[in-house]
Amino acid sequence: MSKTTSKPLDLNATLRQVRHAVIAVECPACGRSGQLDRAILVKKHGASITFARLRRIAAMGCDRLVSTDGDRCQTRFPCLDPDV
Q: What domain of life (predicted)?
């Protein structure tokens, strides 16, 4: 029996590609975390919204997202990593 390894998705992935009912979001830098209901996200933004765009929405107000050093925000979606 062969094990199929799936390649991790990146922030260009869309909600259409990730079918989890709940999308977890976390930021190790500031300790924030939460869960987003996929159905509500699709209804509000459409299934073609990218995780890059969702990341910017989730991290709105983060000083690290827009700093003089560039994007230092660590907001991430664990569902994009197949090992999680």
A: Bacteria
| Spatial distance between the Cα atoms of 28 and 75, rounded to a whole number of angstroms | 7
12 in Cβ contact with 52 (< 8 Å): yes
Q: pTM to 2 decimals?
A: 0.82
Mention every residue, 6+ apart, whose C-beta is less than 8 A from residue 29: 64, 72, 73, 74
Q: Is 35 strand, coil or helix? A: strand
- Binning pLDDT at 50, 70 and 90, where does residue 15 land? very high
- The SS3 of residue 58 is helix
**CA–CA separation, 52 and 71 (whole Å):** 12
Report residue 74 as tokens.
């660590």
